[in-house]
Amino acid sequence: MAGMSLEHAILVSLLEQPASGYELARRFDRSIGRFWTATHQQIYRVLKRMESDDWVTAEEVGQDGLPDKKVWSVTPGGRSALVTWLRAPVQPEAVRHELAVKIRGAAFDDPDGRAALLAEVERYRADHEATLAGYLAGERRDFPDPAARDARASLQHVVLRGGIAYERMVLDWLDDVLATLRTLDPDGKARP
């Protein structure tokens, strides 16, 4: 299987700790979602396919007062598939950024359109600011003592730090975009 897939993200998560589908979906919402998103339905569908491919297996676990749950874990075949993927070269991702195209296109819009774009960039910036705040809160919660980390926690933390750095870079760029948009006069020319 070439390239990153949901299967690989699930294998990594289950190697970190076996989980039910619900627990796995919550992990995606909380931490894995920082770099790979999936809906609960996608996760359950892919788990079934991975079970058919003998990459994961499920054990029925009884719960007091609740229905039994399936706890998923990685099989030797799944570990082998992950190792093969881990050792394969990574191709640079193509960047597709709709907002960047809209910003370039603003040169051909009127002042009302540029005002709408300004509001959209502000909204977009607020979303990234909230994401950064979530990452920083997660860092404080999950990695309070850098000296107490093992290899797994160190690697998890370096991925999170990458997300933090990315969000800070996006916010810096959006601040530049906002400053630039605010310098345009009604004719679309930059004021000195």
Mean pLDDT, rounded to whole units?
88
From the N-terminal CA to the C-terminal CA, the straight-line distance is 54 Å
State the secondary-structure class.
Answer: mainly alpha
Helix segment tally: 7
Q: Largest sheet, if any?
A: 3 strands, antiparallel
How would you spell out the order of helices and strands? HEHHEEHHHH
Q: What number of domains?
A: 2
* Low-pLDDT sequence parts: none
Shape: elongated
Whole-number radius of gyration?
22 Å
Content of β-strand: 5-15%
Q: How many β-strands, per DSSP?
A: 3
* Strand line-up across the major sheet: 1-3-2
Helical fraction equals: 55-70%
Would you write up a description of this structure?
GO terms for molecular function: DNA binding. Residues 95-182 form the Transcription regulator PadR C-terminal domain. It comes from Micromonospora auratinigra. By secondary structure, the protein is mainly α. The protein has seven helices and three strands. The chain has helices at residues 6-16, 21-30, 40-52, 76-87, 98-105, 111-142, 151-182; strands at residues 19-20, 56-63, 66-74. It has a three-stranded antiparallel β-sheet. The N and C termini lie far apart (54 Å). The model has no long low-confidence stretch (mean pLDDT 88).
